[in-house]
Amino acid sequence: MRFAGSLAAASAFSVFAAAIPVDLQPRTQDFMIHQSVPKPFKSGPAKMLSTYAKYNATAPQDVINAAQANDGSVTTTPEQYDTEYLTPVTIGGQTLNLDFDTGSSDLWCFSSELSSSLSNGHSIYNPALSPTSMKLPGYTWKISYGDGSGANGDVYTDVVKVGSTTVSGQAVELAQQISTQFANDIDNDGLLGLAFDSINTVQPVKQKTFFSNAKASLSAPLFTANLKKGQPGTYTFGYIDAAQHSGGITYVPVNTANGFWEFTSNGYAVGSGAFVSSSIDSIADTGTTLLYLPSSVVTAYYSKVSGARYDSNQGGYTFPCANTLPSLTLGIGSYKAVVPGSYIKFAPVTSTTCFGGIQSNTGIGFTIFGDIFLKSQFVVFQASPLQLGFGPKTL
Q1: Disulfide-capable partner of 86 in 37, 103, 119, 351 (CB 3.0 to 4.6 Å)?
Q2: For residue 9, what are the contacts with CB-CB under 8 A and spacing of at least 6?
Q3: Is residue 380 within 8 Å of residue 251, measured between CB atoms?
Q4: List 30, 147, 189, 285, catalytic entry
Q5: Is residue 187 among the annotated active site residues?
């Protein structure tokens, strides 16, 4: 039996957003929510291996070797390295810090059903403490990645609150077993998927995402992402806050065949160079850190960076940290989205060498517009009409 989410609206709460042609002002059921908790820093190779694993793609051996050899430790504040942030979510009255991920469709969390050795350091959801929890007998979920990491468990429904919007009967996937890779990601208590229901992993019946259940109660069936570099960003559900973007929003159609927010970019330019037209199959993924592009684009970009090279010991491109990087422009419909060069300087490998925020998508099968790109733009994820919107903002 499938439990549909029913919605109860509460008083308005804020998240950063932009402007929709439907309704520029939030109603009581619309809300804005701020990210607040920084995620632990991971090295460039570790980020790359996680991305290949997420999409069940075979990582190049250089990436595997580099990730295994690099513990990801840093000696200075992670804010300098484009830290990712988590968002508070209340499940059955218990608050956890979840990663909002437009590249997946499961709402799963650390739970009381995990051993203390695996849940240590995390906030957990205990269904026994919630009078509104209900187990779905025989329902299970499982995520497994190419690097051997994964998690699985059983499924409950409960009241889930994000900002001021409350969904009753939301499927919540409780982790009963989890790999050490997830357990070691302290402060991250799980994930709230915002892709499409078709890739939800619950069996025997796929479950709806929080957004799928919530959208009927919102002023407009959309959410926006205003991620930022080196500081918490915000998500808005149900409306577009015109104060959060500095120009018009360009919309492009979305292809849901693979369950992602998938669209086509029409080309690129490096720095002040000429725009190169090219059809680039892409997805917008808030749960991926780096910007993964076709190898031809990556090569073209780093050819304009003095001292840049592919470093097999790092599994990706590196360059002298002292360099000033050129911007990268990506075409989206009639819009030319510019990623500043400073955003592409991801993190140091040594005191003088840095890891690039742009890397090749070889083996993945499509381009991933991850946070390196998304933090430079205001992005609208709209369910009806089905489209993605991109616009400039003050950086």
Answers
A1: 37
A2: 28, 29, 164, 165, 166, 217
A3: yes
A4: 285
A5: no
Angle between helices 61-69 and 44-54 (to 10 degrees): 130
**Three-state DSSP state, 134:** strand
- 218 is written with which tokens? 């919102």
- DSSP code at position 129: G
Neighbours of 365 (CB within 10 A): 12
DSSP 323: S
Residue type, 35: Q
Answer yes or no: 106 catalytic: no
Phi, psi of 155 (to 5 degrees): -130, 135
Secondary structure in 3-state letters for 272-284: CCCCEEEEEEEEE
- Report CA-CA distances (Å) from 287 to 49, 104, 194, 343: 14, 8, 10, 17
Cα–Cα distance, 107 to 98 (Å, whole number): 9
Report the residue count for the chain: 395
pLDDT digits (tens, 9 = 90+) for 61-75: 877 776 665 543 332
Strands 335-339 and 328-332: antiparallel
Q: For residue 108, what are its two tokens?
A: 């799963």
The pLDDT of residue 231 is 84
Question: In the beta sheet, which residues pair with residue 144?
Answer: 150
Q: Which two tokens stand for residue 242?
A: 């015109």
Full DSSP string of 218-276: SSSSEEEEE--SSS--EEEESS--GGG-SSPPEEEE-B-TTSS-EEEEEEEEETTSPPE
User: pLDDT per residue over 125-176, tens digit each?
Assistant: 999 999 999 999 999 999 876 556 789 999 999 999 998 888 999 999 999 9
